[in-house]
Structure formats: structure tokens, C-alpha cells
């Protein structure tokens, strides 16, 4: 015998008071991030939310760059999301990093392609090195990679000078230059020394986009 239709009235339905705001923030985050796979991204979003971790959400809506030379799916905005999620640790577990990568709907084969540029010896990787590899993949030149790194690491507002500590700049520059057989260590150190002299008069030890020019070399 079929069960009778169940009737509910508004007084019988309990809506958790926090639910409307959770759904509102989730919807805004999805619109801003524009994930390629909403279900995959949503799983990562609510998993991070339940743990109190940084959410896989872009700061703003990002217009796709049609001129990107290598179609990795990676963008500066997505790399910045990964930075927010991973930068609190010096070393990042590769399995955890790969899961965060997948949660942003990025292709797994591209993740492993980045790692092959400088294969890690252990099951973790220094976050700044992975960030540098990601930056190099966005534009293909050392010049572009350093610009992306400054724009991701800076605390300046968008459109500002994108200043970052010279220590961080020189670390990333040395690392990427070391992967290019056409750039000698002497050239690297000479260039960084000239930059350091340029900003030495400042007390904050910061360098911005207007401070440097790097000859375009492939990385």
C-alpha cells in the first residue's frame, strides 16, 4: 500500500541559521573562481571549509589569457590560490599538493610535467620552488616568471608596485636561473648584486616590478 504524501509546514522544517550565508559565500566563490568542474571544485571547497583551511577561491574574477603559450590550464589567479593554501609551510607534501591541484580542476599530467622540470628527491617539495616552476610555465621566460612571482607574493593592492622582499626575489631568481643551462652562475650573481645595490638605500629591503629588467630567456 503506497504511503500517503507527507505534508510539511514551515514550522516543521528546521533550517540551520548558518546555511543561507554558507550557500551565499559558496555561490559567490564559484562565480569568482569559475571552476572547470564545479563538482570537483565543490568537494575541495567544502573539505577545506570543514577543516578551517584556506579555501580554493580566487580573489577576483580572472579573464582567461588567450596568448598563454602553454595550455596547462594554470593561471596566475589559480597559482595564487595554491599559494594561499600552501605558503604556511616550507615543505609541502606532494600528495596533498596534487589533491589541491586537482580540486582546482587542473590536469594531473600537467602537475607531473612541472615536477619533471626539477624532480624532487623526497615525497615533498619546497613550496617556493614549486611556485617558481608554476610561474615559469605561465609565460615561458625568466622575465615573465619573475613578474608573476612578484604579483603573487606581494601584499600590495592590485595595480600597485608589486613589491616583495629582495630575499624572496633573489631566491626564486637563482632557482629558475639554475635550471637554464644558458645562464651562468656568474651572470646570475652579477645581476642580483646590481639589483641589491639599486635598492640598498631602502630600509624595508623590498623590490618591485619597476626595479628590475631581466633579459628574456627561456626557462
From TrEMBL:
Belongs to the ropporin family. It is found in: Cell projection, Cilium, Flagellum. It comes from Echinops telfairi. Keywords: Cell projection, Cilium, Flagellum. InterPro entries: ROP_DD. The keyword Transmembrane does not apply. Transmembrane segments: none annotated. PANTHER family: ROPPORIN-1-LIKE PROTEIN. This is Ropporin-1-like protein.
Amino acid at each position: 500500500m503506497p504511503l500517503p504524501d507527507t505534508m510539511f509546514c514551515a514550522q516543521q522544517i528546521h533550517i540551520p541559521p548558518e546555511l543561507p550565508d554558507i550557500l551565499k559565500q559558496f555561490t559567490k566563490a564559484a562565480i569568482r573562481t569559475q571552476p572547470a568542474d564545479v563538482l570537483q571544485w565543490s568537494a575541495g571547497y567544502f573539505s577545506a571549509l570543514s577543516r578551517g583551511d584556506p579555501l580554493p577561491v580566487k580573489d577576483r574574477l580572472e579573464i582567461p589569457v588567450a596568448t598563454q603559450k602553454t595550455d596547462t590550464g594554470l593561471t596566475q589567479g589559480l597559482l595564487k590560490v595554491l599559494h594561499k593554501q600552501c605558503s604556511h609551510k616550507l615543505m609541502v607534501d606532494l600528495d596533498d599538493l596534487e589533491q589541491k591541484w586537482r580540486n582546482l580542476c587542473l590536469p594531473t599530467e600537467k602537475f607531473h610535467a612541472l615536477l619533471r622540470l626539477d624532480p624532487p628527491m623526497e615525497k615533498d617539495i619546497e613550496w617556493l620552488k614549486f611556485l617558481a616552476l608554476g610561474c615559469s610555465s605561465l609565460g615561458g621566460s625568466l622575465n615573465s616568471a619573475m613578474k608573476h612571482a612578484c604579483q603573487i607574493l606581494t601584499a600590495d593592492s592590485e595595480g600597485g608596485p608589486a613589491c616583495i622582499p629582495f630575499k624572496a626575489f633573489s631566491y626564486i631568481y637563482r632557482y629558475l636561473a639554475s635550471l637554464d643551462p644558458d645562464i651562468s652562475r656568474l651572470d646570475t650573481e652579477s645581476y642580483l648584486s646590481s639589483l641589491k645595490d639599486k635598492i640598498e638605500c631602502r630600509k624595508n629591503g623590498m623590490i618591485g616590478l619597476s626595479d628590475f629588467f631581466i633579459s628574456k630567456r627561456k626557462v
